[in-house]
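Notes from the 1:1 (GR / supervisor)

We went over the backlog. Supervisor wanted to see one worked example end to end before approving the batch request, so GR pasted a single chain during the call. The sequence is below; no edits were made to it. Supervisor asked that the structure be written out right there so they could see what the output format looks like.
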Amino acid sequence: MSNFARSPLAAVLGPTNTGKTHLAVERMTAHSSGMIGFPLRLLAREVYDRIVAMKGPKEVGLLTGEEKILPESARWLCCTAESMPRDRDVAFAAIDEAQLAADRERGHVFTDRLLHCRGREETMILGSDTLRPILKTLVPEAEIISRPRFSTLSYAGATKLSRLPPRSAVVAFSAEEVYAVAEALRRLRGGAAVVMGALSPRTRNAQVAMFQAGEVDYLVATDAIGMGLNMDVRHVAFASLHKFDGRRQRRLHVHEMAQIAGRAGRHQTDGTFGTLGLEGAEEVSFSEEEVNRIEEHEFSWLKQIYWRDGDPRLDTIETLIADLEAKPDDPMLRAAPEATDLAVLKALAGEGWIVERATDPGMVGRLWQACGLPDFRKMGVQGHARLVSRLYRHLTEGDGHIPGDVFAREVTALENLNGDVETLAGRLAAIRTWAYVAHRDDWLADPKRWARRTEEIEQRLSDALHDRLTQRFVDRRTSVLMRDLGAKGEEALPVRVDGEGVVTVDDEPIGRIEGFRFQVEAGASHTDKKRLLAAAERRLGGEYASRAAALIADEDREFALGTVAGKPVAIDWQGRRVARLEAGRTPLAPQIKLDRALDVLSPEMKARVENRLMSWLDSRLAEALGPLLRIDAAIAGEKTPPALRALLAPVVEGGGIAARADLGDVIETLDKALRHRAGQLGLVIGSLDIFHPRMLKPEAIRWRLALGSVFADKPMPDLPPEGATLLAEPKGRTAAHWRRAGFRGFAGQMLRIDMVERLSRSAHDRRDGRNPFAVDTELATSLGLEQEALGKLMHALGFQKQKGDPPQWAWRGRRRKPAKRRAQNAPQPGNAFAKLADLKISRG
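Structure output shown during the call:
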């Protein structure tokens, strides 16, 4: 931002409905130029429309990630906080909802604007009074102005949906919950408008217009309405007081409750807030302290806000990451958690071709711009990183633009206006991605053309989504369940699902949902069974969608590997089967196949579930097999010499382990430098085996053998006992499986290969050339190795037993296998991990 004098600088603080934003708009339009940064695209669009009505379209600009309306003569700009131009010289500047500097995900952006966004003549910081001590410390020159609320906000208690007063807004915290409440309001009260932050401005405005015009008396929304969206709401009912904040499901903070509840009442009209009593749901209630603090607008001061370097160095990827992870000096500032853009950057920093291209500030800056592409489709870091990687490849090849035919294919695929609400919402999220790309000036050869194209598609999708929302939540007059099971007067039969998954119709149990499967109650007649299944398939869509949303939002620890009878490996969620692994191009890149039970979900929701499971799988593989993945990447690296590849490839094929006897010729070709490079990858070139120590840990063993079994399409026997270093050698195939897990057999005992190497080092440390010496039996005894097994091990290591008591050993040198035998035992190309098959997973 410009470094102009900071005076006058005012911080206008207070609760909702104090006219802060209105004041800022008045002050900005009184200056020759200005800009305001808003927390939401919807709010930026709302204020833009208001100023256009006052000043005309040629005088006003709108800058968000997906929209860019910037006439050459534009004097006043409405922006999202992230899109505020850093180099624009304006007389007035303001940042709205500045308390979002304490938000984990976006806080660092608001902190940067709060500290550096300044107008030449006037600057305003708008926000909650909780920001006061932060401003006094970080911006001591700011004049703090308190604004009282125009109307009274009071608690009205809990209300059933059937008794909800007109002009009410119900607030929920997931799209699925919003849809479920809107559906119930349609049945009970004739309909509801729907507002969510993920909607396009066009859809949102059309929905709000219905509510404002009185076509419907109810509004169902996410907490997006708490960010300054102005509607004629008199009562706010909370369907829940918990939300998923990106990390966990948690109860709302009091100031968040107040921000949302404060939407009730407008100007001098008083408002009320309370909770919503939903049948079958847990009771939602405020504590007495929360009510008092909301009514009196008394909230705890913010102690810290999030910070990240807003102008990082672009010399190299390493310096960029270092600056983005730097810690602030001021105790009022807290290092921002790893945001999606940084997580994607770090994921891509490990790809060799990207490192090779990002060698100067221009290319590093281009990479960082690409990483800034928002994850509108909620694909998760790994899935989103793949998209960013694909874009960066285009941006660093040829003329440095994304090819027009590639862009055309992506957006043309989204023009389909058919589908339900969820399907269209998914396409809107996707077109937002390409609209963002189109508004980057140097990413396309003809950005204006493609910006118009994406805008046209978004408008058509927005209109179609508005129509579907209206049809689904306003126009439909009878419920599907009534048609299937009969009507009771004019009311549809209520369908409920309890905490155990039991489905009841009018308090009569008809079946149970287990995971994503509906099982009809035993004893139902064949005819009734068919009708119940048909009814459940349609009526329980909201429940399935809610479960899918819970899966997508759940923590990694709720997922686990499981087994499928007769087949290798499955993925379980909360103990229920949701998918299985199938062989991919390589053992390290398995595919996910969703369980058939998830066919009840919409295609978009299934895709989101699959992306979530792939994100979990990627993170588990990176955690358990990270070194092996890095070795595999080194094989593909252009700078890896063939001699080193010849060593690494069999190790990867063996799941991180290879017998030295099979690679004698390869090892002889390695000079000191190549051995050092192998060591940098973590490989141990041992006396009997070449291995990575981390591949012998329990989780690594489990995943290595699981992937091998998937790739070979074979079932899996038992794993070796977790953490064991010495085992009694079993007979038959189990011994072979344990050898492949990382154990060697010696006279009826099996010793883990890193312990074999430890004994080898001990023996070599004690010997003096080829002179006889006594073995350190204390180490062998501590491992539980018997004398006969120790003798077999020493012989395998290249030592010859000498006569005498106690026995001594002399070095005779390592013997290589005959060439023919080595060739027979060498790993076969294309058979990666095949030897690791047939291992059953015995724990989650």
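Supervisor's comment: The longest helix spans residues 603-636.
Batch request approved.
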